Amino acid sequence: MTIFEEVKELVDVPTAARSYGVEVHRGNMALCPFHRERHPSCKLYEDHYYCFGCQAHGDVIKLVQELFGLSAIEAVKQINSDFALGLDLDKPPDNKAIQKRRREIEQRKAEKLHITRMYDILLRYFTLLHKYKIRYAPKAPEDEIDRRYIYAIHHIDYAWYLLETFNRTDKQGQDEIKLEVDRIEREYKRCVEEWGEC
Ligand SMILES: [Zn+2]
Residue 27 has what DSSP assignment? Predict the structure, then answer.
């Protein structure tokens, strides 16, 4: 792994952009630092950026180069020091240190994946209840009320509440409702097995 690849793995574009004063809005849309604009048109992805206004684009190293007028290696040095990455740019890379950072990166990725999965479960459960509620609502007063409809109206507010809470809270809060997400997953499976996906 080269020093360039290492820097790119360790620092994502949105984090670097924010730290260097780029104004980042919803959905990681930023006010482009490379042309004058009032509405953000520069999209920041994890590993690159692209401006729909002026077509500026590149990875995190290019971003820092362009922001400060640096060469690639100067940008790498700058990022290394600003983000305290502790990469030794003069020595050949130390395998142990690299492996340790690798593990940290893997761990961070696994955590992200885990959070995405939990959110996905909550969303699927809410969506299912929403479908039940619409599809099985009684059409006439004399209709017998469908069990799925009753179940949905009893649980949908709570499902929405969980989804909202999960969205707003930080990592620690998300860990705290992990058990509840496990229960929701079992509940979701039970619904699908018993009543179908709708
Ligand atoms: Zn631009």
Answer: G
